[in-house]
Records
---
Amino acid sequence: MSVQAILLPLFVEVVLTFVLLFVMAPMRTRDFATGAVRPEDVALREPKWPKRTTQVANAFSNQFELPVLFYALTVLEYVTHLAGVVFVVLAWIFVLFRIAHAYVHVTSNIVRLRGALFAVSAVVLAVMWAIYIVEVLTLP
């Protein structure tokens, strides 16, 4: 597999994280400017942000949970030269479900749908890790 094929899903996941950040930042700035929240009300991460801002902030925070394991696995797959077609296909499935999860999170926020999308991405990532572990442990 080419370096581009291996790393492109990771790049898309990184872009998703930055998009959520760049959506959240002006919302928080607006919340301060309008007086919807005061700095001292949220200085220690208290949950006093308006609902919509919290929704986007939570979607952003989620990008530092499961995706961290995806980033680590992608780098390991690349460095050990074990990334093949199966890895790349599963990586794209993972990323597409993460995008769908983030979309639901910042729009309708239907918890059951969001949870199902999260679950699929988690299972895909677990399968990716299981395959990688078996590949590494069975190396000659």
Note: Residues 3-137 form a domain with the Four Helix Bundle (Hemerythrin (Met), subunit A) fold (CATH 1.20.120.550).
---
Amino acid sequence: MNKIVRDHYPVENLPADLRGGLDNHATVRVVIEVESEPPQTKPLTVEQALEMIRKYKAEGHPSVSAEEAVARIRELRDEWDD
């Protein structure tokens, strides 16, 4: 679970709907917690993956050969060696 805690947070920095009834010169402890975790996404089906590839290619993105991909990766990797 994710939680954000801020101690001694100035009331004057809070949004107006949270300041009600509090002294503007006081400080408060603010705790923000996610109420529920986001739903887990299902993995793509083969059909969905193929459709995404088809759309990507239809947008004009060129295909790359395995040799060209390896050359690009090696070039990027070699930049880190310098």
Note: The mean pLDDT is 89.
---
Amino acid sequence: MQISERKSRIRELADMTGQKRLEWLEKNRFFYREDRNYMRFLIPEGLRVLDLGCGTGDLLAELRPSYGVGVDFSQSMLKVAEDQYPDLHFVCGDVEEKKTFEGFDAPFDVIVMSDTIGSLDDCEQTLRNLHNLCHDDTRIVICYYNTMWGPIYNAAGWFGLKAPSVEQNWLTTGDIENLLDLADFEVVKREWRQLLPRKLLGIGTLFNRFLAPFPLIRRLCLRNYIVARPVLQKKKDALSCTVLVPCRNERGNIEEAVKRIPQFCDDMEIIYVEGHSSDGTLDEIHRVIEAYPQHDIKVLVQPGKGKGDAVRAGFSMARGDILMILDADLTMPPEALPKFYRALASGKGEFINGSRLVYPMEKDAMRFLNHMANHVFSWLFTWLLNQRYTDTLCGTKVLSRKHYLSIVENRFYFGDFDPFGDFDLIFGASKLNLKVVEVPVRYASREYGETQISRFRHGVLLLRMVVFAFRKLKAF
């Protein structure tokens, strides 16, 4: 395949400047350090990573893959890469040609295109060709320059502040999202980073960490990041399910939960995690297990306190392919669980969150101050997580057992911080770049017992959670 005149000039320039690439990286080390810090945040260590347009291989090495492959069409760049990183694999070829990827040890967990999209002649077809290198959970990570920085970017070249370049495709985040959609990839999240690409005696660090992440201001940042996933549907086997029911002083709701949970899959287990109740809840669970032998019902007395501890204990013994949480107060109707199962099993989402704030709710189901606070926190967490959340505290959350185990493996990033049990999963799903889908539910009033939520004490905890999330997800 004959490449265009523009791409020929891009390759010639890369071959001419390959040996000087390391000098440019050092000259702009603050910019590249900030960029790679965020790329490491997006892409956990130990994955199978393919870097398209890898240049001298520095970014690929920074990601510390278990198996890393870099592709570039500049022999000069790849010579530097091979000398620096002999443990990585480098291939000389055009990323726009399918034959470049023949014989690759695919699939990959992550495919990276850092600035490469600006050099392509046919972005849509190049993206479409990547499906053969993907599995269901592969993530495409594209980072590029903000088009508003075009004049400054060009001026930097005139003054010798950046490496020489040939005319690029100036694509907005909207343009890139549209190309991904045309190529059957779905955008999971997008972010903007680096308000100042220079250190400036520490001012750049402060601005980038504490000012750049805020709404509106972040749209002025130099770098755009988009994470996408393949959406070509593959036939899935029937999936089993575990419904986890954390319960404390919920004796009157135990049997009702079993009666109202529909049999929405062939293989379902129900696990009650009992939280040291004083009203005979544990005895009632044992009675229900004997009364309904046709159901696979188990019980576990949680080792610690709080819903978060109950969820972790219950999920550790769950055997289902799909894991669900159903609060024992039954204010989220158990009859709605099939909707959550379908959303996940069909591939529409990878982390399914219930929302009580879409439909009108029953009278007295939620107190006014709680209702208003939920709306405020939903807006805050939508911004913090870069995915839409209308109700972070709805107790029903659903994900695959495979993804839950990945959250457990990466829990060290956030630590054991969450007394609610909701944010451990929400933040973990965000860190893994899982696709979030919300299922609206009709929120009902409690029939038995009393709420265990303190509006003021838990409100303070939620404010602390916002600060924690800002520090871990934005200001780093």
Note: The CA atoms of residues 108 and 192 lie 25 Å apart.
---
Amino acid sequence: MTQVIRMRKPSPPSVDLSGDLTPQRETLRSFLENALKNLVDNGKNVSVSFSVGERTTIYNVSCTQEELGKIIGAKGKTINSLRVISLAMSSRLGFRSIIEIPYFPES
């Protein structure tokens, strides 16, 4: 007779949603700012700030128009990669993150 062994799925890591996540948000902001400064030629013109919603944190990138192309990358691959990384980091902590880049209209 064959025995069937049933295994339980591992439980996801517990996340305390009641606590203050400001240090984690600041760590992610710092990571994004350092990554973006290393991508561009003049890192002094790049900064990242964030605003907090109920469950979403919006990271606003400010840069000059000359650096925007290096931040976006070919076909948006660079900024999309940073968005995936930030979403993975923030979701483990229990909040959602969005990265917004500036829009410069054509003159």
Note: The longest helix spans residues 22-39.
